Amino acid sequence: MSSLVIKMATDLVVAQTHAQQLTPDEARELLFSTHATLLALQSQEAVGTSASPGQPSAAVARPDWRSSILRHAITCMECGATFKQLSARHLRTHDLDPRSYRDKYGIPRTQALSARAITAHRRQLAHRIRPWELAHTDRGAASDTAETSSQTPAAQSRKRASSS
Ligand SMILES: [Zn+2]
C-alpha cells in the first residue's frame, strides 16, 4: 500500500518537474513533502474508515482500489505499473483477467479499468454514438410543435380541455 503512495508521490513530482523545471534538489524536497502529505491523507482515511461502525475489517485491510484509479492513469494493483487503461493482456501477465482482478480487489463490475479522464471521454462518445436516441428525442419534440401549430383535432381538443 505504501509503495502505491510512493508511486503516486513520484508521479506527482515527475509531473511537477516537467511543468516547472525543478532542480534535482527541489524535486527531491517536493517528493518528500508530497509523500508525507499523501501518507497523512492516507492515515486520515484509514482512521475514518476504521472509526465507522459496521465496516467489515477485510475491506479495511485490503488496499483501496479507488486510489489506484486517477484522472489520467490507472495503477495496476498487482505490480504498480501505471496505464491509461488496464488491459486484459497486461492482467494476463499476473494470471488475472478483468473479472478476477475486480474480484480480487473488490472493484465493482461497473467500474471501468481505465483512467477517469478516459472513462469520462468514453461515456461522452457513447452518448454521441447513439444517434437513434437523439433522433427519437428530436422527432418527439418536433412532432409536438407541429401538432400544436397545425391544430390537429387532438391538439384542439386538448387545448379546449385545458382552457375550460
Ligand atoms: Zn501489473
TrEMBL record:
GO terms for biological process: regulation of DNA-templated transcription. Residues 145-155 have a biased composition (Polar residues). It comes from the Bacteria. One of its GO terms (molecular function) is DNA binding. InterPro entries: ROS/MUCR_sf (IPR041920), ROS_MUCR (IPR008807). Residues 130-164 are annotated as: Disordered. Residues 130-141 have a biased composition (Basic and acidic residues). Belongs to the ros/MucR family. This is MucR family transcriptional regulator. It comes from Candidatus Entotheonella gemina.
